[in-house]
Amino acid sequence: MKKGLLFAALLAALAGVAAVSWEAQSWRGTVELVDADTLHRRLRQDPLRLEHAFIRGHDLHLRIRYEGGAQPHEFRLLARREPKVIIWRDKHPVPPPRPHVLYLSHHANGERSHTPLEAELVFDLRPLRQDWPGPIPLRLGSPHLKEGAGFELILK
């Protein structure tokens, strides 16, 4: 009898978990190098939760969660264009002293739906190679993250 009750409780728990499903979507884009004014115009601050980030080859892979479902959402990866200053030491370029900051922008187009969604975002980072051929330290930020929070990555 106890085994039957435990089994029924387990099935009920699993059914409850299955009721909360995350609809996964995939997005592909390219990092946009922009000046400071354009960065502030294009950076949207609709809520999202950054779950995971990693670099494979020249692509940045992000796993995010957000709410929506009725309207299409827009995601952008923005980076402020830094002045091209390359320091040379003993005929070799010196790496940039600080990480290149990337900003994840989410525009929900005014949607108010609260359906939980999950998405895999992939951004091509090759435009960052225009300024530097070697390893590039990156810091992924978002208006939704607390100061100092984010992901530290290296584009090799």
Give a structural overview.
- By secondary structure, the protein is an alpha/beta fold.
- The chain has two helices and eleven strands; from the N terminus they run αββαβββββββββ.
- The protein has helices spanning 2-19, 36-42; strands spanning 23-30, 32-34, 49-56, 59-68, 74-80, 87-89, 92-94, 100-107, 115-124, 136-141, 151-155.
- The strands form three sheets. It has a five-stranded mixed beta sheet with strand order 2-5-8-10-11. Strands 1-9-4-3 form a four-stranded mixed beta sheet, with no helix packed on it.
- Strand 6 (87-89) and strand 7 form a beta hairpin.
- It is elongated, with a radius of gyration of 20 Å.
- The N and C termini lie far apart (60 Å).
- Residues 1-23 have low confidence and may be disordered.
Cα separation of the termini: 60 Å
Order of helices and strands: HEEHEEEEEEEEE
Mean pLDDT: 77
Low-confidence stretches: 1-23
Question: How many helical elements?
Answer: 2
Over all CA atoms, what is the radius of gyration?
20 Å
Tally the beta strands: 11
- Shape, per Cα inertia axes: elongated
Structural class designation: alpha/beta
Numbering strands along the chain, what is their spatial order in the largest sheet?
2-5-8-10-11
Identify the CATH architecture.
Sandwich
CATH topology: Immunoglobulin-like
Count up the domains: 1
